Structures are given as structure tokens and as C-alpha cells.
Amino acid sequence: MSDSFTTTNRFFDNKHYPRGFSRHGDFTIREAQLLERHGFAFNELDLAKREPVTEEEHRFVEVCRGIREPATEAERVWSKYMSRIKRPKRFHTLSGGKPQMDTVEEFNDSDD
């Protein structure tokens, strides 16, 4: 990753990881460091705000587009990060009541 993913900007995600990547338990220390160091470049490549220059960056973009599976550490950690922040939203109701359970009521037709 010598000439790939170069950036002078640190990457932070205050929306999903306000205390930093390493403090949330989703990433190993090494993965958190990789995200902080190169995440800005990963993000720009993923969003097509930056053109890939090296072969490694071209392959990275292919992974981002779903053309191939992640193979390198950079590709795996970015895929992992993206899957964590794109979790399905939790379902909320507006009723404010407790969730309803399906119950089966027994009816007797007798004239008690």
C-alpha cells in the first residue's frame, strides 16, 4: 500500500463512531488504525470523488462497486466498515404501546 490510498487527512466518523473506531469494538486496533490513516482516501474512491491511480486502488473500487470480493486488508476493512454503517434501521411504531403478541383465545359455545 506504498503509493496507494495516500492522504494527509485523518478519517473520522463522528455519526457512527463518535468515540473513535477502536473504542466501539467493531474493529481490531489494526483495522481502526487503517481506517483512520486511509479511510479518507477509501471514502473518496468509494464515492468517485477521487480517481484510482494504482492497480490496488482500481481493484479497491471494483470491490466497492460489487464487481469482486474483498481480498486485501484495505478492501476487507472498508467492506466491514460499510456493512456496519449500513445496518438496517430499527423499526419504530408510533403507537407507543407495548408490542402486541398473537394470542389464541378459547371460546366455548356452551350456555354456562
How would you describe the overall organization of this protein?
It is built from three helices and no strands. It has 112 residues and is mainly α. The longest helix has 18 residues, at 29-46. The protein is globular. The model has no long low-confidence stretch (mean pLDDT 85).
Can you lay out the helices and strands and say which pair or pack?
Blueprint: H1 29-46, H2 55-64, H3 73-85
Question: Keywords, please?
Answer:
112 residues; mainly alpha
Q: What's the helix count?
A: 3
Distance between the termini: 82 Å
What fraction of residues sit in β-strands?
Answer: under 5%
Helix content: 25-40%
Q: Say how many strands there are.
A: 0
**What overall form do the CA principal axes indicate?**
globular
Mean pLDDT comes to: 85
Cα Rg: 23 Å
Sheet having the most strands: none
Backbone structural class: mainly alpha
Organism: Tatumella punctata
Region (Disordered): 91-112
Protein name: Macrodomain Ori protein
Family: Belongs to the MaoP family.
